[in-house]
# Entry
Amino acid sequence: MTGDTAARPQKRGFALSDVWLIFGRRGSLKQLGILGALVVIIAIFQIWTGGTTLAPGNVINIVQAYSFILLLSVGMVMVIIAGHIDLSVGSVAAFVAIVVATAMRDWELPWWGGVLLGIALGAAIGAFQGFWVAYIGVPAFIVTLAGMLIWRGAQQYVGQAQTVAVPAEFRQALYGFMPEVGPPTPYNNLTLLLGALVVAAIVFFQWRSRAKRKKLNAILEPLWVTLTRTGILCAVVIYATLLFGSGRVGTSFPISGIILAVLIIFYAFLTSRTTLGRHIYAVGGNRRAAELSGVHARRTDFFVMMNMSTLAGVAGMLWAARAGAAGPGDGTGWELDAIAGVFIGGAAVAGGIGTVFGSVIGGLVMAVLNNGLQLVGITTDRMQIIKGLVLLVAVGIDVLNKQQGRFSFIGIMLGRLRATRAQQEVEEISPGSQRPDPPGKSGPG
Amino acid sequence: MAEDVNHLLQMVNITKRFPGVTALDSVNLAVREGEIHAICGENGAGKSTLMKVLSGVYPAGSYEGEIVYRGEVQRFGNIAASENAGIVIIHQELALVPELSITENIFLGHELNRLGVIDWDEARRRTAELLQQVDLNEDPDTPVKYLGVGKQQLVEIAKALEKDVQLLILDEPTAALNERDSQHLLRLITGLRDRGVTSIMISHKLGEIEQIADTITIIRDGKTIETLAVDGTIDEDRIIRGMVGRTLGNRFPDRSSRVGEVFFEVRDWTVQHPLDPSRLVAKNAAFTVRRGEIVGFAGLMGAGRTELAMSVFGNQYGTRMSGEAFIDGRPVKLRNVKQAISAGLAYVSEDRKSLGLNLLDPIKRAIVSAKLSRISTGGVIDELQETRHAEEYRRDLRIKAADVEVGVDTLSGGNQQKVVLAKWMFSEPELLILDEPTRGIDVGAKAEIYQIMRRLAESGKGIVLISSELPELIGMADRIYTIFEGEITAELDAADVDQETLMRHMAPTKKGSAA
Ligand SMILES: Nc1ncnc2c1ncn2[C@@H]1O[C@H](COP(=O)(O)OP(=O)(O)OP(=O)(O)O)[C@@H](O)[C@H]1O
Ligand SMILES: [Mg+2]
# Structure
C-alpha cells in the first residue's frame, strides 16, 4: 500500500514540490520561515536606514558587536534541547573576563595564556554546575539561578568593582581584523581568499554528497535542485565576501566572526551528525526512553552544562577584547538575548527540538533588531519593548504552526476560516490526497 | 441520507486528511440506540481517527462529511461540545492525572463548586456512588497512580458516567488489561447497555467483540467495508476476512523446536521495590534461556514480570539485592543499559509511548536509536546508512508509513509498536525480551510479529515473551515460567499445558491478592 521503491523512481521530471528540496529535506521548512523573517527584517531596516544597514562598516560592526550573543545561542540551544536552561551565562562570561584580564595584568600572561585560562575556567565552572544538575539532580533553572548570583558576586570580588584593561595583543587576537597582504585591490585580500575557500568547500561538499548517494544507490534529488542550491549558497557567500572585503582599509571579515563561524559549524555538525548530538535530542525528547536505549542521560546533561559555561567564558573574552577591558557591568542580560534567540530559532521549551542553525538565525534576528533600532535612533526603553514583542510573536507563530502541523502563514490565516467555511473550500486548502506518487502533486502550503 | 429514528448516530461520508495521508475516505457509520457497536480494522485503518472526528478532537471543518446525532446535524468544535451532547470518549491512551485522587480526576474540569469553592464532601460522596456502579472497591481519595491499568480504566468509565454519558466511545479499552479485568470491563459495558447507554468499542481482541457486540463495522484503509449484525453466523474468521480482505491461515507459526544449548542464565535474582524497600518485586528468581527458544513469562498484572525483566536489563527497575547473570556460562555484568545492550540483551517495553519511543523522532531515528554504533564511525553518524537500514526494517515489518522521515507520533498504535520492535531488532540482540509485544496490534500484524519472533528464534537467538494473553503464550512459547508476587512458581513445558494449569500457578492461592 505504501510507497515502496518502485513508487519512487530515481529519475523524474520537474515537480513543483522539489523546489523545497533546495532548502533541505522535509522538516527544515521551519528554519526557512525564520530565515525568511530575518531577510524581511534586514530589508525593512535597509530601507528605513537609507542603506546603512547593509553598508560594509555596519555589517562588520554587527558581527563584532553581537558575536558573543550568537555564541551563547549556540551553547544555549544544546542546553535547551536537552531540556534544561542556563541563566548564569552572563555572570559566567563577566567572571571569566575579569579573571583573565586580571591574570594577564598581574601575572603578565601572554594573550594566548589568557585565552587558555579563560577556556579552562569556563569549563571548570560548567563542570561545577553540571555536577549539580546531572549528578545531584537539582533542576538547571535553580542551579544556574544560583550560579547567576555566585559568579556575579565573584566577578565583583575579583574586580573590586573596577574596570581592568586587557593588553593590545589580546584585543587584536580576538577582536581585530585580518591584515592587508598581497597586491593592492579595492578589497581586503584575505577576506577574498576566505570567501573563495568557503565557495570551494560548498561546491565540494555538495558534489561529494551527490557522489556518495550515487555510489550507494540511494535516492538522488534532481540535478537541478543540487545546482540551484549550490548556486544560491555561493551567491550569498560571494555577496558577503565582497561586502566584508570592501570596508575601510584595514578592516576585513573580523576575527571574532571567524571564531564564531568555526564554532557554529563545529556545533552544527556535533548536534546533527554525531552520536553525542543524537543523545542530546534523545534525552530532551524522552529521557526515560533514552536511558532504556542505553544513553547515559546524566553524562549528556553534564556535557551540555559544561559546554555552555565554556562558551560563556569565550563570549566573555570576546566582549572584553572588544571593550578593551573587563568591567563590572559585563554580561548583564545576555542570558535573555541568548535564550530569546534560541526560541525565535524554533526550539521547544519542553526540550527535544531545536537546531544550531535555527538559533544562529534567531540570534541574528535579535542582533539586527538591536543594531537597526539603534541606527534609526530608537532608545533602549522602546527597543526592549520591541524585542519583547518580537520574541512573543515569533514563538506564537511557531506554536500555531505546530498545531497546524506545517509551516505557512497563509495556512494559519486559512485555518481560522476553516472552522467556519464550507467543505469544498477545505479541499482546496489542505493539499488533498497527497499519496507518494500522484502526478499533479502540489507543493505544501 | 435518510434519517432513521432508530439511529442514535450516523456519520455520513466522513473524509479526514492529514498532510500526505487520507486517513478516512468517505466513511459511513450508523449506530442504533442502545447497542454495542464494535469497530474493527487493521492498525492504521482509521478507527481512532474516526472516533476523534466524532468526539470533536478534530473540530468540525477539519473534516468533510456529516455527523447526525439524535436526528440533528452536529458540528462539534471541541471535546466539551460533544460531551455536552452526551458523547464521551475514552482514548487509547488513558488520560488520568496520576498524582490526583480518584475524586479529583472524576471531577477534573467541572468541579462541583459553590461560588468557586469546591464542595469536596459532595464530590467524594458522588464518587463513592459512581465507583460502586462500576464495581470498583477503592477509597475515592486514593491517588490514581496507585491503581493498576484495569482499575484506571474503570475510573475513566466512572468519569464518563458522571458526565451523564449517552454514547460511550471506548478505544481499545482492554488492550492493557488481563483476562479477568477485561471480563469485568466487558460485563460493565453490557450492564450499561441494559441501562440504555450506547457504546462504540474499538478492539483488536476479536473474541471480545464476538462476545458482546451487537453490530460490527469493519474499516480497511480508511474506507467502510461492511457492517455486520452479530448473530450466530459471525465468527472471528469472518471478521478477519473483512479486515484484511482474505482469510488468515494458521495464527501461530509451527514450533520447529531446534532448541539448542542454554546460553543465558539468571540465578538468585532479588530486587527491591524502588519506593518501598520492604517489598521485593523479585525473590530469588532463576531462569534459563536456550538458543532458538521462546520462553514465556506468565503472571497476573503486578506479579513482577516487567519488574524482573527491567531489572535484568541493566538495573532499570528497583534496587538489585542479589543475583548473577551468565551468558554462555560466563558471568556478565548488567549494571546499566549500555552493558546490557553490549552483552546482547534487548528489552521491548510494554509502554511504547513513555518508555519505548521519543515521539519527536522520525521513524528512521527511532529505529537506529538503540545502536547508533552500527551506523557511525568515530561518533559520526552516516545518515545514508541510517536511512537505508530504516527503510529495510520498514519494508520487512510492513510499517504503514509513506517513508522513514514520517514522525512516529503520527503513526497508529500498532505501527508504533512495529517501530519499537524494529528498533530492538536493529540492535542485533542475542536475547530479546518482549514485554506484551502484541498489545493493541491487529490480527494480521500479530501473525506477522509471531512469524518474526519465530524467525529470530530459528536464527539461534533466545526470546523471552512476557504476555497476559495466555493463548499467545501457549501458542508461541516453548517453555513457560509462571510468576506470582515476584516468585517463579513453576516451569512448564508449553507443549502440554493448558490455560487452567497456567492460571493455577499464576495465582496459587486465592487469598493473596494484596494491593
Ligand atoms: N496527526 C496525524 N498526522 C498524520 N497522519 C496521521 C495523524 N493521525 C493519524 N494519522 C494517520 O492516519 C491513519 C489512521 O490512524 P488511526 O490512528 O486512526 O488508526 P487506527 O485504526 O486507530 O489504528 P490502531 O489500531 O493501530 O490504533 C494512519 O495511517 C496514521 O498514520
Ligand atoms: Mg487506534
Observations:
- The CA atoms of residues 214 and 220 of chain A lie 7 Å apart.
